[in-house]
Amino acid sequence: MRKMKENPIIGKEKGKDAMKKIIFATGNEGKMREIREILKDTAYEVLSMKEAGVCVDIVEDGKSFEENALIKARAVMEASGEIALADDSGLEVDFLDRAPGIYSARFLGEDTPYDIKNQYILDKLKDVPDNARSARFVCAIAAVFPGGKTATRTAAVEGRIAHEPAGENGFGYDPIFFVPEFGCTTAELTMEQKNRISHRAKALAAIKNEVLGDGKGDCR
Question: For labeling, which of 7, 78, 153, 190 is most exposed (least CB within 10 Å)?
Answer without folding.
Answer: 190
